[in-house]
Every structure is written in C-alpha cells, then in structure tokens.
C-alpha cells in the first residue's frame, strides 16, 4: 500500500538534512558510560514518511522481481527436469521389471531350497538305510561263510569212504572194480569186489585236458579206505623209481603215473590246488591231505599248518 507523497517543502528539507557536508560538526548526544566502538545508527523517527515510502517501494519492487525470478527458475527447473522425469519413468519401468525378475528368482530359490531340503532328507534316510544294509550284509557274509564251512564239512564227511584215483587209462570195455582189486594186490592191501560199493568216473574240471577222467570208488568202510591210502603211500616210498603206475594195473600201453588220494569236496579241491601253487611259489616242501584237511609244511622240522580256506592260502 502506497502512502501520500510528502510536500515539496518537506522534501527539500529532507534533502538538505541528508546532504549535510559537515557530518563531524553535527551535534552528538551525551556519551553513555558504556561506549560502543561501532558506527552509531541514525535513529528512526516517525517524522520521516518519505523514507518509509522509498523503503516500501523498494521492497515492493524487490518482491515482484523475486516472484518473477522464482517463477522463471521454477519454469527453467521444470523444463530441465522433464527429460529427467522421462528418464525416471524409464528407470522405474526397468526397476519394475528387475523387481519382477527378482521376485521370480526368489520363488525359484525358495523352490530349490525346498527341493534341496527334501533331497537332503532323502539322502540322510538313504545313508541311514545304507549303514543298516552294510551291517546286515556283514552279518549275512559271516552267516554265509559259516554255512559254507558247515556244508563243506558235511560234503567232506559224506566222502570219508571214498578214494579218488587219477591216471587210469579209459577204455570202452573197462572193468573198474577189477582194476581197483588189482591195485589192492599191488600195494598189499586186500580189497574184495564186495568191498567196493560203487565206482564211477567223474567229469573233468578242465574239459580241454587230455588226461583221463578221475575214478571215484566208495568202499565198505573208512577203515578199508584208510588202509588202501596208507598202503599206496608206503608202496611209493619203497619204490621211488617205480611208483604206482598204469602197468601195475594191467594196462600195457605207455606208462602213466597213478595217484590215489582222498575224495575231497569241491571247496577242499580248490583249496588243495591253490595251496600247491602257493607252496611252489613260496618254497614249501610238503603239501598233503589227511582226513579231508589240506596241510602244508615249510621244511623238515617245521610245524604243519592247516589251510582252512582260500583266504588262508594268501597268508602262507
């Protein structure tokens, strides 16, 4: 709000007062006890309306210019920010896509985590079952080994009255009972035909070999069996150059050695064969069978060892 301008006379007085050249000669007020070193301010009096007028005009112009300047700055700022706002929208869209992607990844990770927990649980169960199965397997192995030993013992005991003869030539019209009776006469062990309960040739373990099939004879008692085996052993010791052979049994062809031994079970046969091979490799002097047991001796004066299994052969 503008005030009424002052009269001309008053304005002239105001000019003369403000343009007083001798500022130092102007009267000063009585100094206060507490003096200030700063420049004294001119006291404002209510009797200077022209000063208030110019102050209000200057303030009014300044406010209008300030408003204009603010408007211009706002327009300029808005104009410069519009591209940035557009960029912000693009960024927001991209961020929205990233957020959706992250959400999808989150769901995938949660699913994978659930699946991992499930698989881990199943794996733990499998490990537990595996340990149980391993224990059961060890128990079953022990049981099977024990049963195998029992079966082998039963099979061997059922062969106590049998003798196995290798090296007898094969003929279509052969009479194996008479051949065994003749063998008893040669080794000084009396065997009658009625003492032979059965006699048969068994199949070869190695079909490619040219050796004749073995003969298995079952005698009436284990006493006859033991007597025959002992007599054959004594005959071979007393006739080292002419051990029991095919000519002694009435076969006039080429001389073939004849071996008489206990009739071993299939497992004991494998143990016997493996033991003989290991004995040759490791320098054992003696390998023999007694009462269905495979025995070895390293040298004269050494203690005999009973080879009970194929695993024991590896420990010789």
UniProtKB/TrEMBL annotation:
What the entry lists under Gene3D superfamilies is as follows: 1.20.5.340
The segments labelled Disordered in the record are 1-55
The protein depicted here goes by the name: FP protein C-terminal domain-containing protein
Its keywords, alphabetically, are:
Coiled coil
Tell me the ranges covered by the FP protein C-terminal domain, including all copies: 266-311
Compositional bias (Basic residues): 33-42
Q: Which residues form a coiled coil?
A: 116-157
Which Pfam families did the record assign? Baculo_FP_2nd
Which ranges does the record mark as transmembrane? none
List all Basic and acidic residues biased stretches: 1-10
- Would you say which domain of life the source belongs to? Eukaryota
InterPro entries from the UniProt entry: FP_C
Output the lineage of the source organism: Eukaryota, Metazoa, Ecdysozoa, Arthropoda, Hexapoda
């Amino acid at each position: 709000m503008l005030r009424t301008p002052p009269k001309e006379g008053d304005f002239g007085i105001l000019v003369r007062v403000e343009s007083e050249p001798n500022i130092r000669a102007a009267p000063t007020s009585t100094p206060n006890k507490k003096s200030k070193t700063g420049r004294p301010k001119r006291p404002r009096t209510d009797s200077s309306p022209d000063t208030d007028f110019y102050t209000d005009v200057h303030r009014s112009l300044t406010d209008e210019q300030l408003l204009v300047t603010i408007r211009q700055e706002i327009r300029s700022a808005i104009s410069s920010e519009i591209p940035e706002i557009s960029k912000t929208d693009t960024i927001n869209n991209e961020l929205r896509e990233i957020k959706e992607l992250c959400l999808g990844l989150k769901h995938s990770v949660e699913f994978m985590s659930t699946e991992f927990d499930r698989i881990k649980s199943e794996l733990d169960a499998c490990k537990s079952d595996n340990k149980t199965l391993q224990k059961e397997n060890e128990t079953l192995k022990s049981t099977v080994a024990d049963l195998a030993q029992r079966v082998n013992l039963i099979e061997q005991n059922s062969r106590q009255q049998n003798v196995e003869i290798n090296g007898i030539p094969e003929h279509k019209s052969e009479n194996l009972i008479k051949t065994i009776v003749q063998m008893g006469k040669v080794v000084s062990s009396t065997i009658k035909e009625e003492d032979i309960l059965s006699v048969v040739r068994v199949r070869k373990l190695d079909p490619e070999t040219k050796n004749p099939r073995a003969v298995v004879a079952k005698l009436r008692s284990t006493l006859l069996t033991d007597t025959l085996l002992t007599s054959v052993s004594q005959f071979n010791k007393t006739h080292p150059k002419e051990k029991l052979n095919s000519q002694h049994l009435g076969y006039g062809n080429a001389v073939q050695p004849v071996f008489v031994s206990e009739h071993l079970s299939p497992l004991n046969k494998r143990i016997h064969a493996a033991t003989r091979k290991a004995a040759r490799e490791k320098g054992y002097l003696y390998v023999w069978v007694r009462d269905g047991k495979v025995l070895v001796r390293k040298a004269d004066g050494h203690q005999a060892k009973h080879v009970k299994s194929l695993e024991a052969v590896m420990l010789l």
